[in-house]
Batch of 2 targets.
Target 1
Amino acid sequence: MKLSRNAWVSAGATMFSSVFLVLCIVSIFESRSSQQITALGIETIAPENLNRALELFTLRLQGESRDFPVEDMTMTDAWGELQSTVAAYTKRLELLEEMHQRMAFWISLAGLFSAIGMAVFTVLSSLAR
């Protein structure tokens, strides 16, 4: 089945318009998600802050309770396990942030591409009439 030029142009305009609208909806949901994360104050547990969390905890504990054996506590296996768990969580958080940034970039690029395609096919559609 061979499509006429008008049908081909109309199909292209419809396809690019649909893709553009879907990407707009995805961007809206992504924006809402980012707003919810910001409202929770997640930026306060950024990876660089998490790396220092255990150090700050030990310093505060030393300041609050001078007779507590903080140095002995930091030599235990449980403390080492806690440090490795925090380090793993920090790495995971860094990877998730990186993945989110890459996804946002590709969604924006796809949105730009679909907007250009939509504009081209709309112009071609108006010229074909």
Note: The two ends are 22 Å apart (CA to CA).
Target 2
Amino acid sequence: MFEKEGMPKISLNRGEPAFREFAQKLKETQPLKPLEARDDLKVLISEDVTKWTDKTTLAESVNKQKTVARQSHGYTNFNFHFDVGSPQADTSFVLQLVDDTPFKGARSKNILNPDFKYIGISTLKVKNKNCGYFLFAN
């Protein structure tokens, strides 16, 4: 369990060992080029919080944005992930990198993938709930 003041508790699969393993992995990782933020990769987040993680809604929104982005800039490869619940961007980012969750490392792989050059970041806060969508492309 990850606990930080001002944030909801976040369930982790393995806890501290996952953080230590990621720290070692990061030491062994070659430096990456910065990702360039692109508006054409921003995926629309519904105002309805019940749709934030709905597979059908997500698939429709992500596929729509991929089509628009592919047509406007010729991107050829995409990957997507999201984060719901983390109101503090720095903590959310660390938790995505360590990715000790049911995502099984997919979020970390997206962020550390040297093939991705571009990212669209969408965020929305409704009352005390936070959502972030991340669409990667090259």
Note: The CA atoms of residues 22 and 114 lie 17 Å apart.
